[in-house]
Write a structure and sequence with these properties.
Strand content: 15-25%
Number of helices: 6
Radius of gyration: 14 Å
Strand order of the largest sheet: 1-2-3-4-5
Number of strands: 5
Distance between the termini: 22 Å
Largest sheet: 5 strands, antiparallel
Order of helices and strands: HHHHEHEEEEH
Shape: globular
Helix content: 40-55%
Length: 152
C-alpha cells in the first residue's frame, strides 16, 4: 500500500479528503454484487475521495502520454454513473471509480471483481470515442505511474 500512501502525499489535496466508512463500502459492494479490490478500498477508507488537480499540470509540463486522474468518485456516483455511462454507450460490465479532467472514466471490470482480490486491472473509458482500454495491470501500479511523474 506504499504506492497508495505516496500517491496521496504527492497529489492529494488534503482539505477535501474524509475517509469513507467500511459499512458504506460494504453497502456499495452489495449494490454492485461485486468485490472492490482491497487496494482501492484502502485508498478510500484511509484517505477518502482524492482530488488531484496537479496531475494534469505535471503531465502537460512533462509532455507524457498518460491520461490524468482528477477526481475519485463518491460511492453514490460509482453506482449511478456506472449505469448511466452504460446507457450512453460504454460497454457493459465496468465499475467506474475515477475521472479525468474531460469526463473520461477509470474503471474496474466487473468480471475481475467477482471474488475478493488485493488488486485488479484498471481500464480507461474514453466517452468521446466510446472506447475502453486497459491502462494498468493493477490499481497500485496505476497509481505508481503518477508517483513516477513526481520524480521527474
Amino acid at each position: 500500500m506504499k504506492s497508495i500512501d505516496l500517491f496521496v502525499k504527492n497529489w492529494g489535496t488534503k482539505h477535501t479528503m474524509i475517509p469513507i466508512e467500511k459499512h458504506d463500502i460494504d453497502a456499495l459492494e452489495t449494490e454492485l454484487t461485486a468485490f472492490l479490490p482491497d487496494s482501492y478500498k484502502y485508498l478510500i477508507s484511509t484517505y477518502g475521495l482524492v482530488h488531484t488537480p496537479n496531475v494534469l499540470t505535471k503531465i502537460v509540463d512533462l509532455n507524457v502520454e498518460i491520461s490524468d486522474v482528477q477526481d475519485f468518485l463518491s460511492l453514490d456516483d460509482v453506482a449511478s454513473l456506472s449505469k448511466l455511462y452504460e446507457m450512453s454507450g460504454m460497454p457493459k460490465g465496468h465499475i467506474l471509480f475515477a475521472s479525468d479532467c474531460k469526463g473520461n472514466m477509470f474503471c474496474f471490470k466487473l468480471a475481475e471483481c467477482e471474488h475478493k482480490q488485493v488488486d485488479v486491472s484498471v481500464w480507461f473509458y474514453n466517452h468521446g470515442l466510446c472506447t475502453i482500454e486497459k491502462v494498468s495491470d493493477s490499481f497500485s501500479d496505476w497509481l505508481e505511474q503518477f508517483n513516477k511523474l513526481e520524480e521527474c
